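General statements about sequence and structure are easier to judge against a single worked case. For one protein, we set the task of working out the structure tokens from the amino acid sequence alone. This step matters because it turns folding into a mapping between discrete strings. The amino acid sequence and the backbone structure tokens for this protein are reproduced below.
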Amino acid sequence: EYLPGVNGIVFLVDYQDLERFPESKAELDALLSIEELLKVPFLILGNRINATGVVSKEDLRHTPGLYQTTGKGKVPLTDIRLIEIFMCSIIMRQGYGDGFLKD
């Protein structure tokens, strides 16, 4: 019912909670496989960069299998789903705004 009006998906993950990575991956995979969302951009926010013991951005790509992110460059991309990861700290109000900026 809501999917035809969706312009983008923001997927927030607490990347300090390693035990829940499989759950996050399963949910993200489910969203990415929905046919109505095939051309909808995905913004993945890795929260808690301010905490100790947080994995790196490259580890974040590996765990959910996000090797095909589209990059943050200014190259226009057509006919592909835009997916990118931004590291952030909601508490410190850092990083998440960059994911919403349009080049």
About this structure: The radius of gyration is 14 Å. Residues 12 and 45 are 5 Å apart (CA to CA). The chain has a mean pLDDT of 76.
